[in-house]
From TrEMBL:
Residues covered by region (Disordered): 1-22, 35-60
Keyword Transmembrane in record: yes
Keyword vocabulary terms for this entry: Membrane, Transmembrane, Transmembrane helix
Protein name: MARVEL domain-containing protein
Species the sequence originates in: Venustampulla echinocandica
Ranges annotated as spanning the membrane: 73-90, 102-123, 143-165
Amino acid composition bias (Polar residues), ranges on this chain: 1-14
The keyword Coiled coil belongs to this UniProt entry's keyword annotation: no
Amino acid sequence: MHPSTTTDATTGVSPEQDVEKNSSLAPLLTSYSASVAMDPDPSNTPPPTAGLTDGKAKNGKPTGVQRVYARKGGFLLGQWFFTFWVLGATAQSLRLASELRFAVPMLAYTVVCASIHVVPMYYFAMSNKPVSPTNSRPPQWYLVTYAISSVAWFAAMACVVLVLVDTLPFDGDEDIAKGLQKCGKHKTYKCYHATKNAQINTLAKMNTATAGFITLFIIGHWYQISKLWWCTFTADEIREAYEFNPSKK
């Protein structure tokens, strides 16, 4: 005579069969819970900044911080290019300024200012990333030295304008005492050459334009730098800009 068994009216499974089924699944559930709780693969764990936008990694474009530093570098490149123009024109003016003693100190200062900026501009341009992975701003030495550089250039711009104003009375003067001379290397006719003071005035006009461009580049540079204070960037944008290496592009 077989023992009587009771079946569940809902599932049609006896209690003995249900206990046996649950006991067979218990080890599997235990091992699965342990594997989830102790996952040895760190790649499965999301980073602390996983919810932030990393810009370049997702859409292939530079992040906001990288764009600021790239534009800053563009302004520095333009400033460095026109530095050679100012240096050459002012040195030529200084050579001709034997009759304009009042202009010599201003010309000399402009030559010195342009000369000492040829090398430092390289180091300014090489500072193309934030000071740390968590701070989007440039190093302190950069801000201090470029501030001094900016003041020096503004003073040089003032000297250039003063030389231009002081030499305006000589604009168009011709050296009649030397008589008619050949006007140019490839020209056959003769003319009166400009006096030294008139040449300085012409060079001062060129310098006013080039020094004006340098002033605009300096203002544009500081505008880009100011964005690192009043613009908001994500942690990933700052980190990527800090780790960015142009040589690996």
